[in-house]
Amino acid sequence: LGFGVATVEEGIELRRDGVRSPIFVMSGIQFFDKEMIRCLETCRLTPVISSLPVLKQLVAHLGELSSPMGVHLKFNTGMNRLGIEQDEWPQVLALLNSSPAIQVEGLMSHLAKGENAKAPITRKQVSLFRAVVAYFARNGLRPRWIHLHNSAGMAAKIFPEGNLHRVGLHLYGLGHPKLRPIARWTAPVFQTRRLKKGEGIGYGPYFKAKRSMKMAVLGVGYGDGYRRSFSNVACVLVRGVRCPIVGTVSMDLTAVDVSRVPVGVNPGDQAVLLGKDGKQEITAEELGRFARTIPYEILTGISPRVPRFFL
Ligand SMILES: Cc1ncc(COP(=O)(O)O)c(C=O)c1O
Residues lining ligand 1, CB < 6 A? Predict the structure, then answer.
């Protein structure tokens, strides 16, 4: 169907890149004013309305719309972050009935534990979401899209009657045994050098060579989202060989031990930080463990200065 983004700025970026399909802005619109309305219209962005006050603001600015605005409504069913509450449904309905310039295209909610269909929180969320959909249908509002699933919810088939899935993690090929990771992140070798036993590398130095070794300095650091917590623990792949990080990851540079790479490593060679090289693979889960975080944070933490190529 289209793209889901968090913020208006992300939506604008997609339009600038030539995306023509629908784009919903899922959490970033928490107020409406003249400029916001103009921006949404110009860029054809569909807002998700996730509270009664925001819906009221939209209604108050309807006069500035040149054509009806499609929106999705988000309901709180137990996640307790964003969403319209059950006791607000009648007011929402009344506002919509008196505002023909708003076209509700979708009803949505978000799962707190999508991987577990049987968990009490999931059962509660599904039953409340069914009640929302039924309430609006009884009152004549049957939007085209009904959606509750994230990746985990889709895999666990939590809400089979939904007709749209807001897939995040699965798009990266993560979070399901039948999927293969698609993201690959590389960094160039800038220099190589030999170290004698006892010599240090980088700040501190927090690493000292226990034997004579060959090291390579890579053009990547925490300024790129390659986290400092990977220092002295994570590995990269050079010519398919796992090479440990030695010393601290610094802002723009990271050193690795390439002593085990049989053929010469030279400036310009690429090291794989994330992804496959030969039989070896570094996954976002593996990196996440070093940083005590989840793969989502590793992937979204790759900073904007790292060039992206979409194949
Ligand atoms: C409202 C909403 N829908 C869908 C998703 C996608 O979740 P996942 O990446 O687990 O598929 C998110 C993730 O942040 C979300 O906040």
Answer: 26, 110, 150-152, 166-170
